[in-house]
């Protein structure tokens, strides 16, 4: 397996995701969302989006969670749970440096928005067949509490995984 030369993380589009976590009857659950518009439409994704200029990753995670789900969380309540670089060598403009945050405290009322239909999933029953193929490479480990820096290189179909590796997050 050969991997093309990859651009550095700093040159990738910054994205922040926020994963609310809860327990129901002793079963740990995570909030994901069906993407209804734009990039990745039809896929089950982590809630989040672009980090705006002047905004920290954590601020973007809080803002995007509120915009996409109605849940409001604060900078004190989000925790950096890992980072993932998604490289799309066949479509470099799609490549992104993603910061993963979790939160266990929030307010507001969960609602479907124009962009996302949110849904809770047990950690052991993730909708992997509806997610990006690479999600299996990083999401279960993040949910298990492993803070890692994962690199995913997509294949030329921009969907399947060409290569993936990870190291503990510094
Ligand atoms: N390879 C991949 N694996 C994965 O699991 N999620 C991916 C992915 N590539 C992209 N995503 C998801 C993460 C996130 O939910 C979304 C990227 O953010 P978006 O492009 O949706 O941001 P938007 O353009 O909707 O946000 P804003 O315009 O900033 O509101 O795509």
Write the layout of secondary structure elements.
Layout: E1 13-24, E2 27-35, E3 44-45, E4 47-50, H1 57-69, E5 71-72, E6 78-87, E7 96-103, E8 107-108, E9 116-122, H2 135-143, E10 148-154, E11 161-168
Parallel strand pairs: 1-7, 6-10
Antiparallel strand pairs: 1-2, 1-4, 2-3, 2-9, 5-8, 6-7, 10-11
Residues 15, 17, 38-40, 45-46, 48-50, 86, 131-132, 134-135 line the site of the ligand Nc1[nH]c(=O)nc2c1ncn2[C@H]1C[C@H](O)[C@@H](COP(=O)(O)OP(=O)(O)OP(=O)(O)O)O1.
EC number: 3.6.1.56
Domain Nudix hydrolase: 11-144
Cofactor: Mg(2+)
Describe this structure in words.
With about 170 residues, the protein is mainly beta. Helices cover about 15% and strands about 40% of the residues. It has helices at about 55-70, 135-145; strands at about 15-25, 25-35, 45, 45-50, 70, 80-85, 95-105, 105-110, 115-120, 150-155, 160-170. The strands form two sheets. Strands 1, 2, 3, 4, 6, 7, 9, 10 and 11 form a nine-stranded mixed sheet that branches. A two-stranded antiparallel ribbon has the order 5-8. A hairpin with an 8-residue loop joins strand 2 (about 25-35) and strand 3 (about 45). It is globular, with a radius of gyration of 15 Å. The protein starts with 12 loop residues before the first strand and ends with a strand.
